[in-house]
Amino acid sequence: MKPIQAVLFDLDDTLYDRIPAIRTYATTYFFRDFHALLKPIPQEILSDVIVEADGGPIRSGKEAMHALQRMLPWKATPPDWQQLMKHWFTYFPLCSHWTPEMEDTLRTLKQRGLKLAVVTNGQTAGQNQKIDTLGIRPYLDAISISGEVGVKKPEPEIFHHALSILRVAPQDAVFVGDNPVMDIYGATRTGMQAIWLRRYDRPWYGPLPSPPQKIFALSDVLKILS
Q: A GO BP term, please (predicted)?
């Protein structure tokens, strides 16, 4: 990999793992506010259902909420998907899990003199809340959120937005993400190098025949960039 000046990261399922966060949301906030509308269901099963309904990186939020309407044992007609979505956007950002691996990775990259940024799709308030819940804002030199920038990954403009704040050319930066299309395809078509974080043995898909670089843990970034 060519020498670089900056590392840009996706947020959800890259800097932090969504599945533990979804389980926290399910057993804390969703159970608290919706259990009276449900037939008896163990919290562990509720958590499993919400993880499955979320669908990982290939399912939209609206599709996930429709899945919750279908999959959970509601006593009567379930809440409409907009109500479920509002609840998700209000409470899920509070559930992001800090990990030593995440902080050690960011701290080490900063100590090496690299600029760091997050480029993420989502609502501005919710994504900012996740960043603050994780406690990583002090490490970041730029944050580009689609809700604020007005364009989503994989469009090049959102990547260029972060690069312009960093004052780094695309060829001098690398992007790390879990989504083959939004992250890896988006970054490479912008002119950046890219590293695919493969979580849970999820398959490769999208326009690129294979990932430029592949890792299985966030901290592996340090080895590739050493």
A: small molecule metabolic process
Q: Which of 172, 109, 170 is nearest to 141 (CA)?
A: 109
What was the pLDDT predicted at 17?
Answer: 93
Q: What is the pLDDT of residues 170-197, one digit of tens each?
A: 999 999 999 999 999 999 999 999 999 9
- All domains of the chain, ordered by start, with CATH? 6-16+97-224 (3.40.50.1000), 18-95 (no CATH)
Q: How far lies 77's CA from each of 30, 73, 74, 90, in Å?
A: 17, 10, 7, 22
pLDDT tens string 117-176: 999 999 999 999 999 999 999 999 999 999 999 999 999 999 999 999 999 999 999 999
Pairing of strands 6-9, 142-145: unpaired
CB under 8 Å to 145, separation ≥6 — which residues?
120, 121, 122, 123, 124, 127, 128
Global confidence as pTM: 0.93
Helix axes 43-54, 18-25, angle to 10 degrees: 130
* Contact yes or no for 174/156 (Cβ under 8 A): no
